Amino acid sequence: MPVPPRLRPARLLRAVDLAGTGIFALQGGATAAAAGLDVFGVLVIAFVTAVGGGIVRDVLLGATPPAVFRDVAYPLTAFGGGLVVVAIFRLVQAIPPSVLLPLDAAALALFAVVGAAKAVDHRTELATGGSLRMSWLLAALLGTVSAVGGGVMRDLLLGGVPLILRSDVYAVAALAGAAVTAVGLRTGRSRALVLAAGALVCFVIRMLALWQGWNLPRVAP
Amino acid sequence: MPVPPRLRPARLLRAVDLAGTGIFALQGGATAAAAGLDVFGVLVIAFVTAVGGGIVRDVLLGATPPAVFRDVAYPLTAFGGGLVVVAIFRLVQAIPPSVLLPLDAAALALFAVVGAAKAVDHRTELATGGSLRMSWLLAALLGTVSAVGGGVMRDLLLGGVPLILRSDVYAVAALAGAAVTAVGLRTGRSRALVLAAGALVCFVIRMLALWQGWNLPRVAP
Amino acid sequence: MPVPPRLRPARLLRAVDLAGTGIFALQGGATAAAAGLDVFGVLVIAFVTAVGGGIVRDVLLGATPPAVFRDVAYPLTAFGGGLVVVAIFRLVQAIPPSVLLPLDAAALALFAVVGAAKAVDHRTELATGGSLRMSWLLAALLGTVSAVGGGVMRDLLLGGVPLILRSDVYAVAALAGAAVTAVGLRTGRSRALVLAAGALVCFVIRMLALWQGWNLPRVAP
């Protein structure tokens, strides 16, 4: 019996990916609004936060135009998140961290896992014939870039040092989840299982870091 | 009777595109000089302001190397604008806003329209055969990136928050012109007419915003 | 008699390229540590400083995924440099400028020359058949971007105006070396000779500038 269309893995993955896009757009838009930006600035920052990481990933893979520019659902979701901030900023601002932070960790986990999977799947056609696959280490790095790249752009555009360079275990959680995904897929395990395990690793590390106040040590004394 | 070469649309478009490049180079170079940069820094900022947006557009389209790296007239024009600033900074600084701002608005309009047209024309070859065209919304976004991307890079390199995120209706004017262009071309209207209409829409909105002191409202109270 | 594998030019070039990568990683990591970043931040900045310029060059050439994502030795070297900083920051910080600055100038020279050579070698396949080669001026610009791009990203991420826009003759030395390389290769001289001459020009200009305290004049009085 065929799987009905709406339950096929690609559709499910896209739906979850869009959910992550919406969460990051809300979060980026709220940061921009709090920084005093106008309506247009809030929409731009929401968009960049939500899709910037994926754009960098696709440009680095050579998969251009990036997925965001091929499927209009992504920009609509990103701008939709920004418009929600514009319309009901007070309500968005009132969402307690106990709701926001797990949502953000979930979006981070998802983007890390999806990004790593895209990098593992990518094959570069060589001029000599044949194709080249990326090492799992580099696929894990690209997954991390997918997950944190939008936030880095948000912070640069708002004039600050990117939070991930200063704050608690965030990109490290993404890297761990992306690495589990890349290694798992390369060793031929079940795709659904690997993606779920990678996302869980990222989410759990991030939530533990928040709960326990983990911080990496500074290098200079 | 054939159109003489110098009047052909592509040549005309390139000439106007180069004029926009020169204006943005002058404007970027003057900003850099006023910020205390040395000769080299002024040339770099002039170059980045003039061609940065087009480079990002072409990288996102996958049209690499970007047009700027294929036609040496673009970098020569951009560096030429920077050298004019170096040579006669006082004269450039003395140009009154009543001349500079309409010139800048004209360059903005041109870049938005040309960028949107390039995005509309672009076809992505698919591995499955056939090709994909970009939705008009995404083509309009890429046109806007072409128009404002160089200025964003200028502001980031000079250490500030990009002006377009804080100031009056600027990127919105570019977006309006790019959207008119993308929709017009997709619905099959006369190319010359569509480009002229798109540029006019952008230019008029920008000049009205300057004249009337339009500003978008802030989101946070 | 065949040249033994370890002495072949491509292997030699890669070895020297990796040496430059390591130097820039050490230098970037030490800057990040001194700025108070944590272990992860130091690794990120070391990585970006070491490979950022090459990534931008390859993206602009359309040679994606960039070389850094094809050969795992590059990221390992870059992260290795960062780990050295983490492990023995005090020792790294104690290296006197009389050692560090010539090493940095050597890495700059190497990256400028390798980057320009890659740009000169690159051919863009045209849809009409045939291929396009890049003008020597644009190849020289791409070589300069290779050499200084990582440092620009380091400074932007650490929240400052890029040093090359403010300080003494640095990018100009890279541009001179890259231009010598591009012109030399285009006029068909011996490859080894051209690369050596380009690197020497860059290194000597940079060291003379440091020794004599050369600075370019500011444009604004």
TrEMBL record, chains A, B, C:
All copies of domain Glycine transporter, residue ranges: 15-88, 103-183
Listed Pfam families: Gly_transporter (PF03458)
Listed InterPro entries: Gly_transporter
The keyword Cytoplasm is annotated on this UniProt entry: no
Keywords: Cell membrane, Membrane, Transmembrane, Transmembrane helix
Intracellular or extracellular location(s): Cell membrane
Membrane topology: Multi-pass membrane protein
Regions that span the bilayer: 12-33, 39-60, 72-93, 99-120, 132-152, 164-185, 192-214
Similarity comment: family membership: Belongs to the UPF0126 family.
Name this polypeptide is given: Trimeric intracellular cation channel family protein
